[in-house]
Amino acid sequence: MEFTDKMKEEVLAQARIYTEAETDPVFRSEVENAMEMGDWEGLYDRFYTSLAFGTAGMRGVIGGGTNRINTYMVRKVTQGLSEYLMKNVSSPSVVIAFDSRLFSSSFASSAACVLAANGVRVYLYDVLHPVPMLSFAVRHLKASAGIVVTASHNPSKYNGYKVYWSDGGQVTPPHDIGIADLANKVTAQDIRDMSEEDARKSGLLTSVPAEVDEAYFSMVLSSLRRPELISTQKITVAYTPLHGSGNIPVRHMLSELGIRCEVVKEQEEPDGRFPTVKLPNPESDEAMSSAIALGKKIGADIVLGTDPDADRLGIAIPKDPSKQDYLLLTGNQIATLLADYLLHTASEMKREGVPFIAKSLVTTDIIRKIAEKNGGECKDVLTGFKYIAEEIEKIESGRNPGRYFLFGCEESYGFLTVPSVHDKDAVSSSVAAVEMMCYYASVGKTLQQRLDEIYSEYGYSTEAVFSAEYDGAEGKEKMKSIMAGLRKLGKGDKIAGRTISSSEDLLGENTGFPKSDVMIFRFESGEKLVVRPSGTEPKIKYYLFLTEGEGGRKALESSVDSIKEEFRKAL
Residue 419: which region, alpha, beta or left (left: phi > 0; alpha: psi -120 to 50)? Predict the structure, then answer.
């Protein structure tokens, strides 16, 4: 790109404003060095846009500039959040947690100081804590809102900032829109600030009380359906926290149940560089490989893995009694097993009311079949666990009477088995998964055998997920162009040689969903395709759902990769 004098002047003006406002010398020096070197491309990429506070927060590459996440951008959006709280809540309070990512603790401290400077009461965790424990703490402390500094399972160069409302779920309308509007208008001059020392002296900033953790652990233990069964089983678990925040709570819960849990030593300590994995995501074979290797070594009955903020759970199970080969389950397989177990258990225990399951629209439809056959109700929601949290809140407030919350799930390894948390929870879900395994072991079954039984009863289904990334300003325009092109397709048109039988645009009217940039295609050949741009990353995600045809399960299993490749090339 050629830079005119005018473009250079504009970038330099923005860079100077930023360096004057940035309180962290690391980020400030990055920009100052780029200015001294005349690195116009680098400066342009740092300042051609500003990270926006979206529907639940912001996420970006760590570094200096307005198109990066740094101390200035954290302070900027926190000022907007402070203003929103002061205008709309009497005596507002906020709980703040952070994970193991680079700069997470300092970003959390910066946010706390800005809130306190605006007169907001703040509870700040002293050490890293998972997302689900923050969600619980907001509710337990009756706080107005919560913040988690995390970029979930993204690569180490990313960090982020998520906002929660008083119900413990990520903010939804009208709060998300109101906060975003104020946060995006904040200038450097608007930011109020004070030191952490002064904030603590003022009494506006305090540490989260230890009893909150104790209450969370007690809640999870009380949620067990067959606690006596777990204590009678000799179970060995192999576990990896992937250098994140799940290590202490997950191992504590399993220890409380008397379960032997061995951790992957090289992935035990918090480390935002994630030195042993390319991507700290338990969906990944590579990320879970060390845990599976440990499982083989110790003969583990189940292998567990959690991502850095411990809201996603990966599970691998032995393929045979020798425990020398393990299958890494997909998010849909885990969700299917848990939904099936929880529904059957609820039926056996004859609990009053209709068991309610909420799942994202890109999660397998087999869960709906299981729910309907077992007297439950299953509802699809948009991708994003905040929409599942909304459904829990409807039940709790009496707006969806006669139901009780049983389970929430997303295919991207997000599960919730307790209503006291309003976000996905890998900690309590780990315990639920171990309980489920213990139950089937007590009746002489493995999880693989139960999964096969489910497929025999409801029909085999599987999925293929792929994505394409589009970085920078040009990438954003490319994504818009691709979605616009897909919206022109309808019944009778073809994708990957398959004829479309119906299409649905969730930006349209009367879809049953809030308006969202999502397209759903169904094909005469039986496939279903969901396309959506990611809300947190510069990519478009494609979810392809497949069900067995005349050739049966084996035919579909052998052709999944080729079908996925056909769609990937076409899209």
Answer: alpha
Contact status, residue 194 vs residue 408, Cβ threshold 8 Å: no
Query: What's the one-letter identity of residue 128?
Result: L
Helical (H) or strand (E) element with 561: helix 552-570
Residue 244: is its pLDDT beyond 80? yes
Structure pTM?
Answer: 0.93
Question: What is the token pair recorded at 544?
Answer: 């392809």
For all residues of the chain together, what is the average pLDDT?
A: 95
Q: Which of 152, 156, 428, 430 is catalytic?
A: 152
Q: At 54, which amino acid appears?
A: G
* Residue 4: band (very low, low, confident or very high) from pLDDT cuts 50, 70, 90: confident
Active site residue 467: no
CA dihedral for 565, 566, 570, 571, sign (positive or negative): negative
**Residue 536 confidence (pLDDT) above 70:** no
* Buried/exposed 402-417: b ≥16 CB within 10 Å, e otherwise: ebbbbbbbbbbbbbbb
Please state, in angstroms and rounded to a whole number, the distance separating the CA atoms of residues 508 and 25: 47
Q: Where in the chain is the domain with CATH 3.40.120.10?
A: 5-208, 229-457
* Stretch(es) of the chain classified as CATH 3.30.310: 461-570
CATH superfamily, region 229-457: Alpha-D-Glucose-1,6-Bisphosphate, subunit A, domain 3 (3.40.120.10)
| Residue 2, pLDDT score | 82
Helices 426-442 and 331-348 cross at an angle (nearest 10°) of 60
In terms of C-beta density within 10 A (0-12 exposed, 13-18 middle, 19 or more buried), how is residue 289 classed?
Answer: middle
Give residue-wise pLDDT tens across range 125-173.
999 999 999 999 999 999 999 999 999 999 999 999 999 999 999 998 8
- The Cα–Cα gap between 24 and 15 comes to 15
**At which residue do the structure tokens 């691709």 appear?**
482
**5-208 belongs to which CATH class?**
alpha beta
In this predicted structure, the answer to whether residue 473 has a pLDDT above a threshold of 90 is no
| pLDDT of amino acid 71 | 98
Question: pLDDT value at position 231?
Answer: 79
pLDDT in tens, 480-514: 999 999 999 999 999 999 999 999 999 999 898 98
Beta bridge partner(s), residue 306: 313
Residue 550 pLDDT > 80:
no
Q: Which fold has domain 461-570?
A: TATA-Binding Protein (3.30.310)
Contact at 8 Å (CB) between 148 and 98? yes
Measured between alpha carbons, how far is 414 from 312 in angstroms, rounded to an integer? 5
What would the two tokens of residue 262 be?
Answer: 């061995």
